[in-house]
Write a structure and sequence with these properties.
This protein is of the alpha/beta class. The protein has two domains: 203 residues, Glycogen Phosphorylase B (Rossmann fold), CATH 3.40.50.2000; 175 residues, Rossmann fold (3-Layer(aba) Sandwich).
């Protein structure tokens, strides 16, 4: 059985269930090497403005190591936030056949790439960048990225926009493998208990008979929560519609000011919801909205979650998953991210649409985005690698 080392910045609610699934079902031995303990210890998320510790089990069911991070200021918001001098030695001890690396943005990543290149250890890259709305990269950045991706024996892409990104940066077709972004479908599914919880939540908010639009996530300007509130205020019918925000962040104070200008009882705010609470929030809503602009939303896994719960999604054309998951008028609605009038029009259309006929198509579309499909793509990438010598002789001083 091949041995695959996985190098990831920190445990997350999205990837830990996938690793657990692979350990139980896939014909590959995995060990995850974490570079920071964020998510399993209480630490403040500056964008959520909330002390965060996920309430789901992130570390059981698969092999993992927490590699000491010696950064003066640990974090994923700056290049020196991940510094793990022990990583190469620990990889050498485990002797993987290949390494799956998530991202390239930190000091540890570049040291690992250099060491693997020197000692012939194959690398597989996983990232989800896109170029939506950007015609081309600057010359120096384009050259650097093309050089970087040449260091990887295989690259997995998560969707259409991500594939086009890699192709434009020179990654050959025979090195590209589709391993879609996916979430834990067993967690995000409708059950009688979830239905009861969602009904109770609606009643507690006074929204029992309203059509509810949901925004869930970080209240940051790139996600355009204020633009959503303005659009909603202009097109919603006060006695029929409601907008619910779940989360926190630097834009919250502005949102609360705007909400006071809206018709009474139309806007509701719920605090940050941990992973165990989110299914009922999606179930409570009729429509999920992710109106992000720019390059912020490389994919938008919340769309996967909402669709698993049977909810159509209103997204901007800058959300990375849009081309794959959200077909306008079929599984949701799409608007140009910088066009406020188009946003209002699509929101009005969503609020007046009978969404029940959309649900079977939503369910069919999201079935292709599961851990099984993601793992199949990763294993195809692993199988494509030419046999390499064992990294046992690799030097630990990289």
């Amino acid at each position: 059985m091949p041995r695959l080392a996985i190098v990831l910045s920190h445990p997350t609610q999205y990837y830990s269930p996938w690793f657990r699934w692979m350990a139980a079902h896939a014909a590959v031995a995995i060990r995850v090497f974490y570079l920071w303990d964020f998510g399993v210890t209480q630490q403040r998320d500056p964008q959520f403005q909330h002390t965060l510790q996920w309430d789901t089990d992130l570390l059981s069911g698969y092999e993992w190591e927490m590699v000491p991070n010696v950064a003066r200021r640990p974090g994923t918001d700056h290049f020196w936030g991940l510094r793990n001098p022990e990583l190469w030695q620990r990889l050498r001890i485990w002797q993987p056949d290949a390494v799956l690396l998530f991202g390239y943005n930190y000091a540890t990543h570049l040291r690992l790439i250099a060491g693997a290149k020197r000692d012939g250890l194959p690398l597989i890259f996983r990232g989800d960048s896109h170029l939506l709305g950007r015609e081309k990269l600057s010359g120096p950045r384009r050259w650097l990225l093309r050089c970087l991706y040449r260091q990887f024996s295989a690259v997995t892409y998560v969707g259409t926009a991500n594939r086009e990104y890699f192709r434009r940066l020179g990654v050959a077709e025979n090195r590209l493998f589709f391993a879609p972004h996916s979430v834990d479908a067993s967690h995000f599914r409708n059950t009688p208990e979830r239905e009861a919880e969602a009904t109770q939540l609606r009643q507690s908010l006074g929204l029992a008979h309203r059509r509810v639009v949901l925004f869930a996530g970080k209240f940051v300007s790139a996600k355009q929560p204020g633009e959503l509130l303005r659009a909603f205020t202009e097109v919603a019918e006060p006695q029929r519609d409601a907008l619910v925000y779940v989360g926190d962040g630097p834009e919250k104070a502005k949102l609360e000011v705007l909400a006071r200008l809206a018709p009474q009882h139309c806007i509701r705010f719920l605090p940050f919801a941990n992973q165990s609470e989110m299914p009922a929030r999606y179930r409570m809503a009729d429509i999920f909205c992710l109106p992000s602009r720019g390059l912020y939303e490389t994919w938008g896994l919340a769309v996967n979650e909402a669709m698993h719960m049977g909810r159509p999604c209103l997204v901007s054309d800058r959300v990375g998953c849009q081309q794959d998951l959200v077909t306008d008028g079929v599984t949701g609605w799409v608007f140009p991210s910088e066009d406020a009038a188009a946003f209002r029009a699509k929101l009005a259309q969503a609020l007046s649409t009978d969404i029940d006929p959309m649900r079977p198509t939503i369910a069919q579309r999201i079935t292709g985005y599961t851990y099984e499909q993601t793992t199949a793509g990763l294993l195809a990438a692993l199988a494509s690698l030419a046999p390499k010598r064992s990294p046992a002789s690799a030097r630990p001083d990289v």
